[in-house]
Amino acid sequence: MLNGIKLEEDSLDHSIDYTYGDDLGFYNMKLNGKCSSDNSRALIESLAQELYEQADVQKRPTRKAYKATAAVVRDLLKGHSYSPPKPCGRYMSPNTFEHCHVGFKSFTGIKDKMEQAGFITVERGVWWRRAEDGIGKVTTMQMTPKLLEFALGYGITPKNRSMHFGKLPRPKAIFNPIRVTKKRLWANGKKKQKAYIRYDSRDPRLLREGIRMNRLNHFWAGQVITPDNHHAFYRIFHNGDVEGFDFNKGGRIISEGGGYQGMSPENRSRMLINGGPACEIDISSCHTRIYYGLMGQPLDPAIDPYTLTRFPRDVAKAYVAMMMGRTRTAGDWAEQTIAAVLRKGKIDLNQYAVDDVREAVFDVLPLLREWDTSPYRWDDLQYVESCIILETMEILAYKHDVPALPVHDSIIVPAKDQELAMEVLSRCFQKHTGAVPMLKIKG
Questions:
Q1: Residues 18, 206: contact at Cβ < 8 Å?
Q2: What are the φ and ψ backbone dihedral angles of 414, each rounded to 5 degrees?
Q3: Average pLDDT over residues 101-116
């Protein structure tokens, strides 16, 4: 079963459920598709008319019905383009359609007619309080062979959908710009699945953070990205059920659905912003520098500490990243770390004794020896990182009209604004850590 949440059974409740993420096995429906070819216009007109006829509706489809049909079909084609195909997931509470191009009534009307006519299968969401496994589930839908064949009759397939469907402008706001996860527990050596927390939508902290994110979404609605691989931003906090949580754990800014953040660094280097070339500015050894700064011992901004051990840089970096995700410095290489480094850098960490790497890293970064008793953990460091990136984005956008796309500990900006962006990013880093960062241009 798929994770997520369906809110329609409690639509009058003044709460928001954030059980919606990018790692849940379904395509997050954007409902922003529109016809951009004669073939797609003919397909949507014919499909909408057939849906109305099979539902025994006497009147012709409305303009809103055509618009909703196009948006739903485009998302279904997108979901089916994955290997293996993914179903499409969607909140079903009316208030979640507040900022959408397609309204709640139009969407549900077309969805129900498509299901009735056998063009899609639907798995309805389960209210999270009553889910048997304790995890809520969004409503998901998937196109059937009947719809695939119908679209093929007009020369349209999941793979060539972009030739026939364009995108409506990005939303200036989204329903859930702030999401909070519970602390992830371990079972049988593996982390349990991510679970989200409900918050009262009137919570002043939630409102404050939400306003900041949707102000950025409003700014980005007017920017042009090529390829257009971005929908909207949300900010995700972690460990929301831990004592002392005050929207101060984690907090990274995420492009909904993965977007450009899921692209390879090479592909990101070819992106255009407002028609011009872009560059990616990275904070080198970011969390280590944040930690040293917070502990009052800033690192030299001209020296990359990961290059000072007798091991390859990626090996030293992998150990520090792994260690900061734990509460103890002792321990073997994590399976996830081994797989990630092998996939990214073609380096087999099994060839390096973790004890030897640990000591080599501690010789260069002696403050890390105290990690077991440190007042900081990964979620604290990530929160500081996110504040640096978010404030940099806001200053560049609102004071200089310069767009900046976040990629965790880096930003993508127009190449012509590189110098200004580096200055603002450095200043924000110093403000939050007391240290000067080491900045690099990726690629």
A1: no
A2: -55, 135
A3: 96
pLDDT at 11 over 50: no
80-115 burial, b at 16+ Cβ within 10 Å, e below that, comes to bbeeeebbbbbbbbeebbeebbbbbebbbbbbebbe
Q: What is the pLDDT of residue 56?
A: 92
Nearest-angstrom CA–CA distance, 435 and 428 = 10
Distance from the first to the final alpha carbon of the chain: 40
In this structure, the number of other CB atoms found within 10 A of the CB of residue 403 comes to: 24
Identify whether the C-beta of residue 79 lies closer than 8 Å to the C-beta of residue 31. Answer: no
Identity of residue 24: L
Q: Give the count of beta carbons closer than 10 Å to the beta carbon of residue 11.
A: 12
Q: Which residues, in sequence order, are CB contacts of 152 under 8 Å at separation 6+?
A: none
Compute the distance between CA of residue 210 and CA of residue 205 in angstroms, rounded to an integer: 8
| Cα→Cα distances 113→19, 43, 57, Å | 27, 16, 10
DSSP per-residue string spanning 31-58: --EEE-SHHHHHHHHHHHHHHHHHTT--
Backbone angles phi, psi at 148, to 5 degrees: -60, -45
Share of the chain above pLDDT 90, in %: 77
User: pLDDT tens digits for 298-355?
Assistant: 999 999 999 999 999 999 999 999 999 999 999 999 998 999 999 887 899 999 999 9
117 pLDDT more than 50: yes
129 pLDDT exceeds 60?
no
Residue 380 has which token pair?
């604290």
Which three-class secondary structure state does DSSP give residue 315?
A: helix
Q: Calculate Rg over the CA atoms of the chain.
A: 24
Q: Tell me the backbone φ, ψ of residue 157, rounded to 5 degrees.
A: -130, 165
Amino acid at 284: S
Query: For residue 173, what is the enclosing H or E element?
Result: none
Structure tokens that stand for 273 in this block: 């912003």
